[in-house]
């Protein structure tokens, strides 16, 4: 049986007038809570003939809204080879498969090899993005990861030396040397080594950290601490999986010293003229934060506010 359908993304995906058939759709389930999946992703799950999901990583509520007769396959104990018969049947019977991944499928999703399998079976595929744990953790703690003149970059990585080999040159310490915001996945089991590598790379011991455990799950725990308290904090709360660590001076609590130029009244762009006095102040003093003169604001040298102490929140509470 020949199948000439393109492997390229279908622009009609998510359009209820254009049912999806005979393909695999990699669906980003988001960080945990069922209402944080995209409308498009939920639509794919509702249409799917086969739903492949890992119960160890995805909450049951995410896949609960399926059509009658849909086949739910828990992939938690399966290998890639175990999935091949399902995908072969999807090709032969023109079925829609929702391959549901925690967070965003493009980040530590092990989706590249699954696409290779689809190609070998001449089975069409596409991807629906999802909210990753790093952005969910930032949202739960009401922080911006890219504060002007503090950090304009985000490094997403994991601690080297684990069971999954890291490419040469990709180390926590080398990334830490940039001083930018870092999101560290899959590293909680070696918390002491993580803390030491971050400090060795150049982060100051007082650099603020955010620890997210099961972010947006019912048992969510959100913690704040200094970098030199990171290992002890994680050990105290017995965190070793389902944990993400954010680190960097942009995460400090309190007002910021510098704001974005975009919304400064002295900044001119195609939709707005600059106010003359504000433009003069911008040239002379830069884009000062709203409360920069009356607070210990974050600046380009690190965090001005004390970030010691840990704070816990659960779903529905103010993070």
Summarize the structure.
With 319 residues, the chain is α/β, with parallel strands linked by helices.
Proportion in helices: 10-25%
Provide the gyration radius in Å.
23 Å
- What structural category characterises the helix and strand content? alpha/beta
> How many beta-strand runs?
10
Major sheet description? 5 strands, parallel
Into which percentage range does the β-strand content fall?
A: 15-25%
Order of helices and strands: EHEEHEHEHEHEHEEHEH
Assign an overall shape. Answer: globular
Q: What is the mean pLDDT?
A: 86
Please give a structural write-up.
With 319 residues, this protein is an alpha/beta fold. Helices cover 23% and strands 16% of the residues. It contains eight helices and ten strands. It has a five-stranded parallel β-sheet, with helices on both faces. A five-stranded mixed β-sheet has the order 6-7-10-8-9, with helices on both faces. Strand 6, helix 5 and strand 7 (181-185) form a beta-alpha-beta unit. Helix 6 (191-201) packs antiparallel against helix 7 (230-236). The chain is globular and about 70 Å long.
Fill in the keyword field for this structure:
single chain, 319 residues, alpha/beta, five-stranded mixed sheet, 10 strands, disordered N terminus
């Amino acid at each position: 049986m020949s199948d000439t359908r393109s492997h390229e993304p279908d622009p009609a995906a998510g359009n209820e007038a254009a049912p999806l058939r005979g393909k695999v759709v990699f669906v980003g389930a988001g960080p945990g809570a069922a209402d944080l999946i995209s409308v498009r992703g939920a639509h794919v799950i509702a249409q799917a003939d086969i739903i492949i999901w890992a119960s160890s990583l995805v909450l049951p509520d995410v896949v609960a809204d399926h059509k009658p007769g849909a086949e739910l396959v828990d992939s938690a104990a399966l290998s890639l080879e175990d999935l091949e018969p399902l995908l072969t049947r999807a090709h032969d019977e023109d079925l829609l498969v929702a391959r549901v991944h925690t967070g965003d499928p493009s980040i530590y999703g092990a989706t590249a090899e699954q696409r290779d399998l689809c190609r070998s079976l001449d089975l069409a595929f596409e991807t629906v993005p999802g909210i990753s744990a790093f952005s969910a953790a930032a949202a739960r703690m009401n922080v911006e990861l890219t504060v002007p003149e503090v950090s304009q970059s985000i490094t997403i990585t994991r601690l080297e030396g684990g069971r999954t080999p890291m490419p040469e040159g990709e180390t926590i310490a080398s990334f830490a040397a940039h001083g930018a915001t870092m999101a560290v996945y899959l590293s909680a089991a070696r918390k002491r080594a993580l803390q030491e590598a971050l400090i060795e790379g150049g982060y100051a011991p007082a650099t603020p950290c955010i620890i997210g455990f099961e972010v947006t799950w019912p048992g969510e725990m959100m913690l704040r601490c200094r970098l030199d308290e990171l290992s002890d904090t994680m050990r105290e709360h017995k965190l070793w999986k389902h944990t993400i660590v954010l680190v960097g001076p942009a995460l400090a609590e309190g007002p910021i010293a510098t704001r974005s130029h975009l919304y400064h009244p002295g900044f001119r762009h195609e939709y707005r003229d600059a106010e003359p006095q504000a433009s003069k102040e911008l040239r002379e003093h830069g884009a000062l934060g709203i409360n920069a003169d009356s607070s210990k604001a974050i600046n380009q040298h690190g965090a001005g506010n004390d970030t010691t102490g840990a704070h816990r929140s659960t779903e529905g509470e103010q993070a």
